[in-house]
Amino acid sequence: MGRSMQDPTSAPGQTAAPLRPPETVMRLERLGANYQSRLSFIRILMRRLRQEGWRFDRRTFELDDKGVGRAVYQAIGPERTYSLVAFSHDLPDDQRSDRVIAEAWDATFALFDGDPGADDMERLSANVPKQEAGRVSERELTLARANKSVRLFDHVVERLAQGAQPDADLVEATGYLMRTTAVYGSGKFGAADYAAISGRPEFGAPFQAEMLTVYLIRAFSIDLVEHLAARKAPGTAITIDPALRRRFGIGNSTGLGMAPFVLNHPALINNWITARETALARVRAQPTATASAASRFRALAQRAAVNAAAWRSEHPDQQAKLALLRRDMDALNAHLDADAFERSQRPWDRLYRWAEANLSIEGQEQVVALLIDALEDLTDDLALTMSAQEARGRAIDGAMTIGALKRIVQDVYGFALAIDWTRKDPNARLWYVSAEKLEPRMGQRHEEDIDPYEEPLAPARDAARLQADLAAWPDDQTVAAFLLKHPKHRHAARRAQLAARLPYAEVRGNTIAADLLPIDILRCKLAFFGAARFDPRSDRWIRINMFQGAPFFDEIASDSGDDWMYPAAPDHP
Amino acid sequence: MTTRSLSETTSLAKRAIRGAGFDWGVCDDIAAAVEWLVRHGLPGVEALDQALARAADPPPPCLPITSAEPWRSADGRPLSPIQTGLALADHLHLTSNGGRIAIRDLEAPLLVAGCAAMAGESSGRAYRIGWGALVILGGRGGGLVDGDPSRLLSASNDVLVCVEAPEGGALGLDIRNRRPAVDARVWERLEDLAAKTYAPATEASRIKGAGPSA
Q1: DSSP letter string over A386-408?
Q2: What percent of chain A has pLDDT over 90?
Q3: Do the beta carbons of residue B41 and residue B33 sit within 8 Å?
């Protein structure tokens, strides 16, 4: 069934380009090749900070010679102030773990709504270092923690203490001094519910409080190494050179916990992807290219090639992807050298089609991001469409007929109906939550005794089961009558009805297959955050870098353009 | 006193219902009803606690749904608030064009009313749900319209009646970050049920289930 999706916001008189169909976009392999772009949440945040002239103030910085103590960083917006309260600890190396099951960290944080008083600081110092074992209040918007990347961290302290800059290659190889291992918001552990703050313009786009938290943690990580160097060698210590300082982002270790989010918030995911696909469609619909946009695209393509060359991973699968990406970026740049694409009609659409025909999925999706990034101002309004009112449209439509539901399931989940679910491989995996600190995990159904604990994260299989039972019902009966007899199908029925209205709500893949790569799901969400340098450590654990290249507080106002996330282009002779 | 966020409350509700043995899809709807009630200042968590206290019984027979007669129990036992709430949410279309749903044999109506309210909010409609002297307006601009709030959780032999309220409401009681002040023992019961949804921690699970070496 052809679902015609057009950009509803295209200018009058302009032929809208079709949005790419969900059957293409929502496949796991392509979700796992997602790239950050100007519609990513970090980019949205940084544009706001610059456009609104946010100021920053390090209100408190009380650390001892070992770096233990507390600090408060304030982000002062036009109407409100937010404070990152940081606690820095002395963590023995053998206790350092990035997993949810860790119980101690190098540093712990909360983003306070306003300016914390003495009582707040006391309460926070008693709770924040405990993380999940403590409680925060509705005055806290996020709760987070970070661990040092020890090798680089120690190297930087050492060099600065000696009066020398850190080794640039070493910095580039890791890319961060600290990595967050969780950034909790949205009411977790007692923090403010998102609904409590979503009316504030600064939080209108998704995850802004979380991204602001990470941005402030980045500043803290730099201050921490400079502080330790200064305490170690007061006479000789220096600070990091500003250009090198920008090469430090904040790392993040992400595991399985993020994958359920993508499956459990279909309306939200739909809105993120719709925004991106709409942006792409607008670009492709442009009848011509200005010289400056074409020049900008060429420059970004070169910088993307530099990025691909600098991007490292130890994981063999990722190394294979990177080899393809490098080849693709070379091919893209060669094509741009040979082809004056800007002289043709609908030049961007032509470029996209060239990429589709000639590049790997990684290369294609990098080109999508470059297309969106090249045309500044064309798509930034879409940032406001990326949140979702999840209370609307979540109840089941009981009046729908069985016939209509059957057709929806066939349309959305046709791929699932074609799978032989009696075989072992399609059912091999099982998502569950461990009693051990409630860590989300994935198990082997046929080897472990965990069936009773299965989380509802297998929409493809559940749709197939739904369709099998629907088959016995006459088309003119109602879904309400069916669900009265088969309450176990409520979950699948709701998802199907939602996916019929929201084309990008449903992953077009089997999330319990033997060959599932959970990192594909993680990367989809992380790219929307604005992460880069995806570095999987297993099929379900990934390291990323956030804010690498971003301006620091004193650089935001003067930083021109919204392209700091691409490394500098190589010098031309 | 420790307060829980709305999202924590809803997550706990979902897991508690699952821990009591219901299907995940049932958990989604009932937890959403609890959330609607809590946001409008109504004792949704307590209503769930009451409903789950009955969940130990063998499951009730299927509700016979009609638009002409009141829905009633087929075997003399009080209707399950969970099953009935879902059925009401799914059958709200029977109230269009002046239709009326009446339900007898319902001991604890609040959760059932919450299901209709939640479904109303979802679809952009509003419903007037009453029993005895209590009336709730559910859907846009909803909340408690009439009656003594201290009786919201009381057992009731009254027939629950649900009709569409085309005019909607303007009560403005929807507080999106409301933190329910609930008795600690109620939370504990729900947490005990929720704990049943977590797989036991084992060494093998820790090594193979997650992390960089999985």
Answers
A1: S---TTTT-S--TTSBHHHHHHH
A2: 88
A3: no
State the Cα–Cα distance between residues A345 and A350, nearest whole angstrom: 8
Q: What is the pLDDT of residue A559?
A: 85
CA distances from residue A288 to A29, A282, A294, A374 in whole angstroms, order as listed = 32, 12, 10, 14
- State whether ipTM is beyond 0.90: yes
Q: Which of these, B47, B40, B44, B43, lies nearest to B169 by C-alpha position? A: B40
Is the distance from CB of A108 to CB of A131 less than 8 angstroms? Answer: yes
What's the token pair of residue A139?
Answer: 């005055």
Q: Which two tokens stand for residue A196?
A: 């409590």
Residue A198: list chain B partners with CB under 8 A: 176
Quote the pLDDT of residue A484: 94
Rounded to the nearest 10 degrees, how much is the dihedral formed by the CA atoms of A49, A55, A56, A60? -150
Contacts of A118 (CB under 8 A, 6+ apart): none
CB-based contact, B97 to chain A, within 8 Å: no
Whether A84 contacts A109, CB under 8 Å: yes
Strand ordering across the sheet containing B126-131: B100-103, B160-164, B126-131, B134-139, B143-146
Closest CA to B164 of B138, B182, B195, B189: B138
Q: Which residue has the tokens 């990008």?
A: A504
Q: What are the two backbone dihedrals, phi and then psi, of residue A487, each rounded to the nearest 5 degrees?
A: -60, -20
Element containing residue A317 per DSSP (H, E): helix A316-338
CB contact under 8 A, B179 and A138: yes
Q: Is the pLDDT of residue A47 over 60?
A: yes
The rounded distance, in Å, linking the Cα atoms of A290 and A283 is 12
List the single residue in B with minimal CA-CA distance to A140.
B5
Task: Determine the angle formed by the axes of helices A490-501 and A266-285, rounding to 10 degrees.
Answer: 20
Q: From the CA of B152, how many Å to the nearest CA of chain A?
A: 24
- For the record, the structure tokens of A73 come out as 């960083």
Q: Could you tell me the CA-to-CA distances from B137 to A63, A146, A223, A291, B38 in Å, in that order?
A: 55, 47, 55, 59, 14
**pTM for the full predicted model:** 0.95
CA–CA separation, A69 and A411 (whole Å): 58
What chain A residue is nearest to B32 in terms of C-alpha separation?
A: A391
Kindly report which listed range (A101-105, A182-186, A371-375, B206-210) carries the lowest average pLDDT score.
B206-210
| A473: pLDDT strictly greater than 70 | yes
Task: Kindly tell me if the per-residue pLDDT of A66 is higher than 90.
Answer: yes
Contact A370, A308 (CB under 8 A): no
